[in-house]
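Narrative summary of target 7.
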Amino acid sequence: MSDLICVGAISGSFGVRGEVRLKSFCAIPEEIEDYSPLSNEDGTRTYSLTITRPIKNGFAALLEGVETKEDADAIKGLRLFARRDQLPQLPDDEFYHADLIGLQVYDTGGVLLGTVKSVQNHGAADLLEIHGPGLRATVLLPFTLDAVPTVDLTQGRIIADPPEGLF
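Modeled conformation, tokenized:
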């Protein structure tokens, strides 16, 4: 498990005074400000974050060190990370997406199905993107209690009971 969790991303500049367009990946989007200062992916640079106002598809925000529209444009695509110890503890049946990526997925009979490459959400529910040597294409496994009865982070594995015909 990584010590850094992605909590947001910069999607461009907003206005001419150095504000950025911020997408929050937090369950309560405005709580991203509570985790400030945030860092880049490798942790070499930190940014103090202040949300200035909500805008369509996110927030307008100020980042320390970003003073102009050109500065804001230059960091478009920057993913922002919080330290794991800054984030709230989750109940036993909830997981950070970053903790699921890389876990091996086995069926209820113990057969390796593949590895979690990403966690996606297209509106209805989370889906685990599974890749593996025996798979012709990516498999999207619904991340529901029926399809995924067991997630064992200490063993680094998921036990799945996928819908018939998915694999």
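Helices lie at 69-74, 97-100.
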